[in-house]
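Notes from the 1:1 (GR / supervisor)

We went over the backlog. Supervisor wanted to see one worked example end to end before approving the batch request, so GR pasted a single chain during the call. The sequence is below; no edits were made to it. Supervisor asked that the structure be written out right there so they could see what the output format looks like.
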Amino acid sequence: MESYLIHVNGHGDRPAVLDVHVNIGGGGPAPGKGKGRKPRWAVRASEMSKKTFNPIRAIVDSMRVEPNPQKPMISLSIGDPTVFRNLPTDDEVTRAVKEALDSGRYNGYAPSVGYLSCREVIAASYSCPEAPLKAQDVILTSGCSQAIELALAVLANPGQNILVPRPGFSLYKTLALSLGIEVKFYNLLPEKSWEIDLKHLESLVDEKTACLIVNNPSNPCGSVFSKSHLQKILAVASRQCVPILADEIYGDMVFADWKYEPIAALSTNVPILSCGGLAKRWLVPGWRMGWILVHDRRDIFGNEIRDGILRLSQRILGPCTLVQGALEHIMRHTPAEFYHNTLSFLKANADLCYTALCAVPGLRPIRPAGAMYLMVGIEMEHFPEFENDVEFTERLIAEQSVFCLPATCFEYPGFFRVVITAPEEMMLEACARIQEFCERHYQGSEVAQDLECDK
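Structure output shown during the call:
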C-alpha cells in the first residue's frame, strides 16, 4: 500500500488547513462489500441523459428514406454556413488564429470566463450608451450554445418553466428538459412576419416562470423584430418581472432596409442575458467561441447571478484559448467589406428562393429579413397524399434529392425550413426541383397562387 500526505495551505510552523491521506492500492475492506451481498454490475444511464432529447435528431434519424440516385443530393437542412465551402471567413480572421498559434502563448488554461483582455474587447465591441458594458459583464463560452446553457442553468431551477418561441430553435427545449425545466411555447405569427403573439406570451407567465427567451434575428424564421415590437416585448417582461435570455447569435446579420436592435439597448429595467458568438457572422461555427453579455442596470441580477455564471463556467474551464488569442484582431480588423459581401450574398439567395417558391402551387414562403433561413408554409389540403410536413419532406428527398427540415422540428407543423447558404446555381436547382415535386403532387385550383406573395 502506498500513502500520500497532501498539505493544503500549510506554511512552516502554521498548521495546514487541510491534511488529506490518500491510500492507493490494497488494505482495508472494499466499500459496500458487506455480509451477504453478492457484487453485480448495475450501470445505468443518468436521469439527466434520459431527459436529454433533440427533436431534430429524433425526427431526422427516424426518416427511413433514400435520395433519388438519379439526382445529386442538395441538403438545405443544416444551419452551417461552411457546408458548401462557398462562404469562407475573411483572411484577417484566419491570419489572427495562425498568429495566435505561432506565438505559443495560448496553449494553456485561461480563466474559465475567458482572458480579461478578450472580455474587454467584447465589451468595447458591444457596448453602447443605452446599454454600456464592462469586462466584468462578459463571460466567454464554448460557442453560443454553451452560453445559452449557462444562462438557462443560472436563471432556472428544476420545476420552474421558461417561455420559448414557436417556431423556435430546438436546442432551447433540449437543454431545458435535460435540466428538469418545463418549456412553455409562445406563438410567433407568420402573417405578421413572425412577430410574437404578445397576448399569448403574457398569458403563459405564472409564478414558476424563470425567464423569457427572445431569439432575434430568428432561427428558423429569418425574421427581424422592429424597435417598436421589441419595446412591446420588454413591456410584457417588465410587467411580469421576468428576465430575458436574448439569443442574438445572428445579430447584425440583417439585410438592407432592415435594422437590427439589440434588445438590451431598449431596456430601462428588464435584466437581460444576451448570448452571441463568432459562429455565424464570422462564418466559423466550429471554432466554438461564444459569450454572455450581462445587462443589469437596475442591479436586479446583483452579484448572485454573476457569481452563479462564474461557478457554472468552471465546469469546463472556458472556451478555446487559441481563438481567444485571435479575438482582439478578429473583432477590430475584420474588414467591413467582408460583412457586406456575406449579407449581399444571403439577401440575393433569400430573394431568389422567395420569388421562386412564391410561384409554386401549394407553397407560402415568408420573406426573411436576416439570418440564413426561409420558412415555407405547405397548404397540406392540396397535398392529400401526405399526412404532414415530415412526410412531405421525406418524399421530397426520395423523389428530388432535396433535403429541407420539416418545421415539426421547430414545434411548428405544416412548414419547412430552407437554409439559404448554398451557391446560387444550387439554390436555383433546388427550387426547380421543389416546384417539380409540388406540381406533381398538388391537387386543387392554382388560381391566385401569388396573392399572398408580395411583389
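Supervisor's comment: The first helix runs from residue 47 to 51.
Batch request approved.
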